[in-house]
Write a structure and sequence with these properties.
The chain is built from 16 helices and 20 strands. It is an alpha+beta fold. It folds into two domains: 177 residues, Creatinase/prolidase N-terminal domain (Creatine Amidinohydrolase, Chain A, domain 1, 3-Layer(aba) Sandwich), CATH 3.40.350.10; 301 residues, Creatinase/methionine aminopeptidase superfamily (Creatine Amidinohydrolase, Alpha-Beta Complex), CATH 3.90.230.10. α1 packs across α6, α8 runs antiparallel to α9 and α9 packs across α10. The longest helix has 23 residues.
C-alpha cells in the first residue's frame, strides 16, 4: 500500500491567510496488471502481444515550447504512466506487463527535467517490469516469434521499429480486435478508478459551488474537456466553447465543466439563472430537465437498460412540453377526444421530442478524451425506430440509423455494478436546427405551437449533469455540486 498525498487550499479567517491542508488516503498502486488482464480476457486469446504507444512530445511551430501534455487514455489504462515518450506491452501468454520509458540524459534534465526511473514507476504502478525504450525493438522481434500475434489499436500504431519485412508469415498483426476489447474492459471500473473519479467529482463540485459563490478554487491542474459556458442562443449549441459572448440580456448560463484527477475525469453541468432569478420560461424548462434527470437517476440499478432509460427521458420531455403548450396533439380530423396519455403516445411516436432533446441521457465516464466526444446523438428517425422496436429489441441492435450506429451497442446493454455514467438530459431551442428539420415538415410541424415556441427561443437551453456510480443495489451520485433550490440560495447569498 502507498499513501497518496492530496491537499486543499483553505482560508484561515483568524490570520487572514491561506493554508495548505494535507489530505492523506491509503490506496493501492495503480492497478495496471488488473487492467491488462481484463483486456486480455476480452480479447479471448491464450497468446499474443499487446502493444500500446503513449503520447510523444510535441512542440509548437518555430518554438521550443508546446501544448500541455495529455496522455493517451488506452495507454494510461494499461500502464498508469503519465509522462511522454513511453510504450507498454502485455505478453498475454506469459502474463507479463512491461512499461517502456525514455532515458533522459543529464544534458536535457537542465532544460526539461528528468523522467521517472524504473524503480519509481514500479513503486507507483503494478507492473511486471519497467525497461528503457531503446531496448523495445529487440524485445518486440524476439517476443513475437513465440507470441505469434501483435495486437494494436489501429494500423498507424504498428511500431515503426518493427522489422515487418523480416517477420515470419505466421506472425499476425491484428488492428481490429484490441479497441473493442479494451473499450469493453474499461466499462466496469476498478476500485482505484472509482476513487479517482470520486476525487475529480469532489474538486469539480467544489468549483461549481465556488462559481455560484462568485470565486474559483481547488487543486486539479487539468480539465477533462474544454469548458462549455453558453448563454442565450449559445446554450442551445451542445459543444459551444468560444465562451466569449456578453451575458447582457441573456436568461441562463449553461456551465459544463469538469476537472481531471490523475487522468480520471468528472463531467458536471449546471444551468444558472443570470442575475440570480429564473424567468418564467427559464424556470419552466429548468423544471422539465430536473424531472428528466431525477427520474433517470432514480431508475439506475444493475440490469436496467440504457434503451429503457433513454425512452423514459423522451417520454418525460414529451409530457412536459405538452403541458407547456410547446407541443400539442396533431389533430387529424378524429371526432373522438383523446386522453392526455393518448396524446403523449401520439406525439412520442413521431420522435418529435428529439427536436428539443437531440442527445442521449448518458455517456460512459472514466479517463475521457480531450473533447466531449458524445456518440449518442439520436435524431427523430432513430427515436421512432427505437419506439417501434423497444419491446423486443435485441441487445446490441445496430440497425438504428447512421447517426446512432455508434451508440447502438451502448443503448442495447444493461447497467452493471462498477459502471460510472453521466446522467445529462437537456432541453434545447436551437432555432436553425428545429426550423430546418422539424418546422419545415408539415407532418411534424402540426404538433408544434409556433406561437408558444416563440416565447422560448431566448431561453436557449438547459442541461443538468451528474456522474453516477452503479452499485450492487442501486447507485451512488458522485457529484455534490449544488443544484436546484440549493444552487439558487448560494447564488443569492442566502
Amino acid at each position: 500500500m502507498e499513501a497518496i498525498v492530496d491537499c486543499d487550499i483553505v482560508s484561515i479567517d483568524e490570520f487572514d491567510a491561506l493554508a495548505i491542508e494535507i489530505r492523506t488516503s491509503t490506496a493501492t498502486k495503480y492497478p495496471a496488471r488488473e487492467h491488462a488482464k481484463k483486456a486480455g480476457k476480452q480479447l479471448g486469446v491464450k497468446s499474443g502481444l499487446v502493444y500500446l504507444p503513449g503520447e510523444g512530445v510535441s512542440q509548437w511551430e518555430d518554438s521550443d515550447m508546446g501544448p500541455p501534455f495529455r496522455q493517451r487514455r488506452f495507454f494510461y489504462y494499461m500502464s498508469g504512466a503519465n509522462f511522454p515518450g513511453c510504450a507498454v506491452t502485455y505478453d498475454i501468454g506469459a502474463d507479463n506487463l512491461t512499461l517502456w520509458i525514455p532515458y533522459t540524459p543529464p544534458s536535457l534534465v537542465l532544460w526539461f527535467g528528468t523522467t521517472p526511473t524504473p524503480d519509481e514507476c514500479l513503486a507507483k504502478s503494478d507492473l511486471n517490469n519497467v525497461k528503457y525504450i531503446a531496448d523495445l525493438p529487440k524485445y518486440l522481434n524476439s517476443t513475437l516469434e513465440e507470441a505469434g500475434s501483435l495486437f494494436v489499436l489501429r494500423a498507424e500504431q504498428i511500431p515503426k521499429s518493427l522489422g515487418l519485412g523480416l517477420l515470419k508469415p505466421s506472425i499476425k498483426i491484428d488492428t481490429s480486435a484490441l479497441l473493442p476489447a479494451m473499450t469493453e474492459a474499461r466499462v466496469v471500473k476498478s476500485h482505484y478508478e472509482v476513487s479517482m473519479i470520486r476525487r475529480a467529482n469532489d474538486i469539480s463540485s467544489a468549483a461549481h459551488r465556488a462559481v455560484c459563490e462568485g470565486c474559483v478554487a481547488e487543486n486539479a491542474h487539468m480539465q477533462s474537456y474544454p469548458v462549455i459556458a453558453g448563454s442565450g442562443p449559445n446554450a442551445a449549441t451542445l459543444h459551444y466553447d468560444a465562451n466569449d459572448e456578453p451575458l447582457a440580456d441573456r436568461q441562463l448560463l449553461v456551465l459544463d465543466a469538469g476537472a481531471e484527477w490523475q487522468c480520471y475525469a468528472s463531467d458536471i453541468t449546471r444551468t444558472l439563472p443570470i442575475g440570480g432569478r429564473f424567468t418564467k420560461e427559464g424556470r419552466a424548462i429548468h423544471d422539465v430537465v430536473t424531472r428528466m434527470q431525477d427520474e433517470c437517476i432514480g431508475m439506475i440499478a444493475p440490469g436496467t437498460g440504457f434503451r429503457d432509460m433513454h425512452l423514459h427521458a423522451h417520454r418525460v420531455a414529451t409530457e412536459e412540453l405538452l403541458k407547456l403548450g410547446i407541443l400539442r396533439g396533431g389533430g387529424g380530423g378524429s371526432r373522438v377526444k383523446k386522453t392526455v396519455a393518448e396524446v403523449v403516445e401520439e406525439v412520442l411516436a413521431t420522435g418529435l421530442s428529439s427536436a428539443f432533446f437531440p442527445t442521449g441521457w448518458a455517456t460512459m465516464l472514466g479517463s475521457k478524451s480531450t473533447t466531449k466526444n458524445k456518440r449518442d446523438m439520436i435524431l427523430r428517425e432513430d427515436l421512432v425506430h427505437m419506439m417501434k422496436s423497444s419491446a423486443n429489441a435485441a441487445a446490441g441492435d445496430a440497425s438504428f440509423g447512421s447517426t446512432a450506429a455508434a451508440a447502438a451497442q451502448v443503448l442495447g446493454r444493461p447497467l452493471e455494478p462498477g459502471m460510472v455514467v453521466t446522467v445529462e438530459p437537456g432541453i434545447y431551442f436551437c432555432r436553425e436546427y428545429i426550423e430546418a428539420y422539424y418546422l419545415s415538415k408539415p407532418e411534424l410541424a402540426r404538433y408544434i405551437d409556433t406561437e408558444v415556441l416563440g416565447r422560448y427561443w431566448s431561453v436557449g437551453g438547459v442541461r443538468i449533469e451528474d456522474c453516477i456510480l452503479v452499485t450492487e443495489d442501486g447507485y451512488e451520485n458522485l457529484t455534490t455540486a449544488p443544484k436546484g433550490e440549493e444552487m439558487l440560495k448560494i447564488i443569492n447569498g442566502k
